[in-house]
Amino acid sequence: MESSLRVVAITNCPAGIAHTYMVAEALEQKARQLGHTIRVETQGSSGVENRLSDAEIAAADYVILATGRGISNDDRQRFVGKKVYEIPISQALKNIDTIFPHLATQALTFTADNSVRLGKQEVVQGSVMSHLMAGVSAALPFVIGGGILVAIANMLVQMGLPYTDMAKGAPSFTWVVESIGYLGFTFMIPIMGAYIASSIADKPAFAPAFLVCYLANDKGLLGTQSGAGFLGAVVLGLAVGYFVLWFRKVRLGKALQPLLGSMLIPFVTLLLFGVLTYYLVGPFMSDVMSGLLHILNTIPPSMKLGAAFLVGAMLAFDMGGPINKTAWFFCFSLLEKQIYDWYAIVGVVALMPPMAAGIATYLAPKLFTAQEKSAASSAIVVGATVATEPAIPYALAAPLPMITANTLSGGITGMLVIAFGIKRLAPGLGIFDPLIGLMSPVGSFYLVLAVGLALNISLIILLKGFWLKRKTATQQENEHGHRTA
């Protein structure tokens, strides 16, 4: 083995208190004794500390994983292609003398098995948007599960089953199912705030953010007309997260440091932000949400259609980019307030760019390359289940006509969704949403989707045909100019 090695390591244990830090210190001491350099990332009760950078991992000769609860798939992905030595943390201390000598013979090269990221990273890691999307990702299962249960309850009532709440005696089965479903909508807000904060500052921020976000949405406790909603979860999640991130930098010495994340940070943060939420943040954000809801409920029809055009156009413009995410976030945030028509725009417009591109490829094959033709069927099928990625290659190949067609048709379809009174309870399965009760009215959904697709396809064929003719004419002019020169 080489005389001097560059090593990186991760230590964690189930409790995240004693062994995590003891093994980290032991590895550092042993590395110094042997003349090696080492950086140890601890995943303890205070969350991730001394996080390894990509550059440090890339430069390392070996990776040591001394763990008691394993590492996440995201962490495994960081070490793909590296020589990794794994040891249970319970064995690390008593075998500390043998770890470094065994690196050359027992370290194995990590592969991408079970750790491949799905899709591309569309937001910068560590940015505010990445923290918001972490919160949204955590909230999605709550609203999906809850929305489907509410839809099932409504379908059962329409089929003739009785609906009786607790105020009228023994509750009916439909009421029980609906009530369980609405729990998903209730807890999606504190879960979102907790995961926003946790994305910023790890585990110590989770509990305080969850509790203050729940408080901010409890109208009974606050005595307000409305809860703080998604806006409150965003504000409180970010505030708690960055406060805890600063708090974690406090140094208390080896004896007390493990207590910082498990006791002091949750206690101080909950006390501070709990009081602030009760007296200031909760009532203020409640007033803001009440004002927003009042505007949405009293907006004149003409202005509402204009806003729907804007939302639809934004959703279709960059297919998962920041403009799309802004519009999606606005529509999704209203579900908790039981406002379902804006999210219906997402349910229709998100289907259109990939489906329209795929169908247009079959209707006007001369306008598309062989590669685009081979991907057409996949674009249609995947697009029908609300995944916009298949539309991106078509837009990159001809940005001006494709994005223009998508944006215009998306905006007009957004207006049609509002005009036809379509509602969507929760994220689902795209074109199958009406069949499982998540989108209604059923006929209006399929009619508006058909009209939107027809418009989108027509604009793609028209605009791309014109764009290709202009492109060909320009190339011929350039070639003619070169010959005459």
Structural overview:
- This protein is an alpha/beta fold.
- The protein folds into three domains: 104 residues, Response regulator (Rossmann fold); 171 residues, no CATH class; 179 residues, no CATH class.
- Helices cover 64% and strands 7% of the residues.
- The protein contains 21 helices and eight strands.
- Strands 3-2-1-4-5-6 form a six-stranded mixed sheet. Strands 7-8 form a two-stranded antiparallel ribbon.
- Helix 13 runs antiparallel to helix 20.
- It is globular, with a radius of gyration of 27 Å.
- About 2% of the residues have low confidence.
Defining traits:
single chain, two-stranded antiparallel sheet, 485 residues, alpha/beta, 8 strands, Rossmann fold, 3 domains
Topology:
Blueprint: E1 6-12, H1 18-34, E2 37-44, E3 47-49, H2 54-59, E4 62-67, H3 73-78, E5 83-88, H4 89-92, H5 96-99, H6 103-106, E6 108-109, H7 128-158, H8 173-201, H9 206-216, H10 219-222, H11 229-247, H12 257-298, H13 301-317, H14 322-333, H15 341-349, H16 352-363, H17 370-374, H18 376-383, H19 392-397, H20 399-419, E7 423-424, E8 439-440, H21 442-484
Parallel strand pairs: 1-2, 1-4, 4-5
Antiparallel strand pairs: 2-3, 5-6, 7-8
Helix pairs in contact: 7-8, 8-9, 8-11, 9-11, 9-12, 11-12, 13-14, 13-15, 13-20, 14-15, 15-20, 16-18, 16-21, 20-21
EC number: 2.7.1.202
InterPro entries: Bacterial_PTS_Sugar_Transport, PTS_EIIB-like_sf, PTS_EIIB_2, PTS_EIIB_2/3, PTS_EIIC, PTS_EIIC_2, PTS_IIB_fruc, PTS_IIC_fruc
Keywords: Cell membrane, Kinase, Membrane, Phosphoprotein, Phosphotransferase system, Sugar transport, Transferase, Transmembrane, Transmembrane helix, Transport
